Amino acid sequence: MLLSSLVRAYADAARRSLRRWSESVDTDTADMYSVGASESVTGRLLAKLFPRRDDYVLATKVYFPMGPGPNDKGLSRKHIMAAIDASLTRLGTDHVDLYQIHRFDPDTPWEETMGALHDIVRAGKARYIGASSMYAWQFAQAQHIADTHGWTRFVAMQNHYNLIYREEEREMIPLCLDQGVGLVPWSPLARGQLARTGDTLRAGTDPIASMMYDPHAAQDAPVIEALRAVAAGRGVPPAQIALAWLLGKPGVTAPIIGATKPNHIDDAIAAEDLTLTEAEITTLEAQYRPHPVLGHQ
């Protein structure tokens, strides 16, 4: 299964993309993407594409600011309860399949956050809950609080994980494997670093990619070269190899792809049927060097 975040500037482009992947992938969004516009567009298009709500899996997230006020952000009970209702209204549905906290909130006790999320599940507004980038000890705290009170546990971790950022293999992934938590990695193609074969408009205009990956470009270059060599040997685009590598990792259930063109979806779907050899995996992994922690803020 593959998830795709639908943050698109134009509804027509989103509609074309949704039609392409509607038979193969499920949909992940967040309230803060375009300050709610992503949820609105996604909800309208899903309603047109699918006759029944049970025909697709829908996930969204909460945490980042949705307004200027102190209660317009974070993981307090007040904000979570307001945010889920607002998201459901924009999405045009009475529930999401997976409701995720977008980050750890240092200003709110876990008891308050986990209690609110449990109440949302009990109310039928979310089937399951998940979390996103944080330290493993923070995630373990949350699960312990849920267990202590008999509340709903997180079933998914949306973490930063790809061929040029593998720090999650040290603590978070072993914890998730032990706890039976599924991994839904974000930025599986490192914001295009692992997909492109030449200069692109995004390469020169994406400030987040520049912030996250440019400082480590020199140490990442050998990994990208190895990726391109394996892709050339297979006769497929590098994106397929990068996604196939990720899909082959224990615990990974649904890499989150961001598709803006039909061929992006084709590559993602094709990766599900691509099994890498041990030699290819060794080639891809051998040049990796440790990185500072990225993506927890």
Automatic annotation (TrEMBL):
GO molecular function: oxidoreductase activity
Residues spanning the membrane: none
Signal peptide range: none
A cellular component annotation (GO) from this entry: cytosol
Keyword annotations of the record: Oxidoreductase
Pfam entry (one): Aldo_ket_red
InterPro entries from the UniProt entry: AKR_Detox_Biosynth (IPR050523), NAD(P)_OxRdtase_dom_sf (IPR036812), NADP_OxRdtase_dom (IPR023210)
Domain NADP-dependent oxidoreductase: from-to ranges: 28-286
SUPFAM superfamilies linked to this entry: NAD(P)-linked oxidoreductase (SSF51430)
PANTHER family per the UniProt record, alphabetical: NAD(P)-LINKED OXIDOREDUCTASE SUPERFAMILY PROTEIN, NADH-SPECIFIC METHYLGLYOXAL REDUCTASE-RELATED
Name of the protein this chain belongs to: Aryl-alcohol dehydrogenase-like predicted oxidoreductase
UniProt source species: Actinocrispum wychmicini
Lineage: Bacteria, Bacillati, Actinomycetota, Actinomycetes, Pseudonocardiales
